[in-house]
Predict the structure.
Amino acid sequence: MRSFQPLFLFLCVFHVHNSPNSKVLAQNGGDNKGNGRAPKGNGRAPPNEAMAEILKEKQEVIRKRKAEIMKKQAGARGFLKKKKIDRNNRPASQLRRKDPFRRKKDDLASILFPGVSPEEFFDGEEIPMWVDLVESKKTQVPFQYYDLPTCQGPSMKKVAGLRKNLGAKLQGHNLKPSPYEIFGQVDQDCQALCMVKVGIKKLRWMRHLVDRQYRVHVSLDSLPVLMRSKELNYAVRGFPLGFKAPPSYTGLAKDEYYLYNHIKFSISYREDKDNFEGFRVVGFDAHPVSISHQSSTGDLKDLTSDTVLKTCMDGVIVKNDVSTFLPLTVSDTKDKDATLDIVYSYEVEWVASEKYWSDRWDIYMVGSPDDEIHYFSIVNSLMIVFFLMGAVATILLRTLKRDIAAYNDLQTVEDAQEESGWKLVHGDVFRPPQNLRMVLCVAVGTGCQLGLSVVLTILSGFFGFLSPMNKGQTLSSVIVLYVMSGSAAGYVSSRLYKLMDGKKWKRNTMLTATLFPGMLVAMFLSLNIFLSFAGAATAVSIWTILLLSLLWVCVSTPLVFLGSFFGFRAEKLSVPVKTNQIARVIPDTLWYLKPPYTFLLGGILPFGSVCIELFFIMSALWLHQIYYIVGFLWVVALILFTTCSLVSIVTCYLQLCGEDHQWWWRSFLNCAGGGFYFFVYSLWFLSTKMNLVGILPTMVYLTYMSMLSIAFALFCGSVGFLSCLIFTRLIYGALKVD
């Protein structure tokens, strides 16, 4: 007879001792080595028979539980059919979307997460669980769940198709049904899922993922799984793939990697028969366990969900124990064909709760005390910025009013010859730039297109058309609105190019449509090649690239040409003064009025007005946090716009007072310097807040932050340039110039 675990022997002895036809098995000793026959005794039950009885009872319990589940499922299906409710195995976020303009309920969830409505379930009803990315904060290279050596879930053909937007495809989100079966209010004891044989090469990759602290993300009723501990006072989304234990913990000679192959799911629900039928899911927790499973028969080859595991018997608590951890290693490391048998299992516990459905997201928002710091910092920034706006506006209005009155009171030629300052350059202030005037027009037009798309996206989120829980929706909105705003870029670029007496309007229009998008596409495709070689989930397919190309070529470019057509057909922007034929010599000015000092000094305030909010936005982008305060974002966008405008006007006024009339490029670059500080800030964020490991994760981070820095610089520069253009036309239009 084969040897068993001490606890399992105790269960066998306890069962035989309480059997009416048997006595204590230990009196015989139960030794049956080699002969394969049961020992003789005075009515004593052989150990094999006792084992068979235990297995028979366990299988009978499983059979009754399945019958109970089937009975509850039949009742749930009958109720749904009677109520004409169509489940179709879809996530809650995609249910009840036939009327997007329905009246929202006055609860916290409808305000924070518009578009997500409560979903009721019933006893015995199968509730789909969805698997998402396996990702880590240490690397920005996520993988799909089924890239891992794990149990395969149901085929997507058996489940209703999920609608994936463009942003979800670019971010790698691809929800698939999980291998775990969840039934409404049906507790599930430890149950085997499958057994997977993992080779040495795959084990090496799994150890790498565990070392990089990858976490598995699943969701139930659109609620991400949460791993939390009241004792340690922490809560984090997703559960780790495994862990690395030091020698001081395991007693081994070196660090060892272990896999979490058993998951304990705890689902909280709320019932309220007065307000709704069925129950609502209000919590979804997971507790991972690493355990080396053993079959009751000693054979794991033909393992199914009905297989009774010795480590999952009644009375056996599945817990993390150093003696039963599952190491990610094979016994014979010299054998290249050696494999590790991994048995995956899970259990489900349903817990009644008094928590309301509208409050189920509170635990995801708490995290750290940064929320209060966020609120008061934004309010403090608002107070400071508004004070600076008032002070700068007052100074400028007073100074300009006095200068204009003094210049207009000049009566004699002698007085006019003694004039100095910004009025002296009235004959050169509207002289077009000699270098790269077309590039300047394209940059300003692109900045206007970016600003318009971002503002429309923020307004969509502010008025409830975007849901933060719909993965990729915000990115999709930015891309689509940017494409649809192409006519604005073409119009602004063409009007400015016509003002600068440009003649090559076809080249100007083509550059407006291709320069910035082409640069982004080149950076994205170069990065996508490396991600494809790494097998990352964020490596987009050729069809997604084709879709982006169609949006660019078939939608954005025609709209740019349309806007450019109307821009060139419109009348040329008028200027209040005539331009001299010979350009005036620019005198030497103070050092802080010369480039590149003006670029560095002018970019500080635009970046400083958003640096606090930028920290939370980057935390949401790279640290997997949830960003939901769209109202603050809208206020910060207005502050950024106003700050760029005022900074540009002040620097332009100081430059004109120094008799420097070449303000065109200077007004753009002074505010565009904020993009430089944006990138420097991203480097600080990389070194202090992110623990990236490897070249590819760093490359991913720097590539995307470079894109955002360039876009930020274009937006700030376009606001600064247009503000200076309006400012110069106003002040020189108020002068009496012969």
Notes: The mean pLDDT is 79. DSSP finds 20 helices and 14 strands in the chain. The first strand starts at residue 129 and ends at 135.
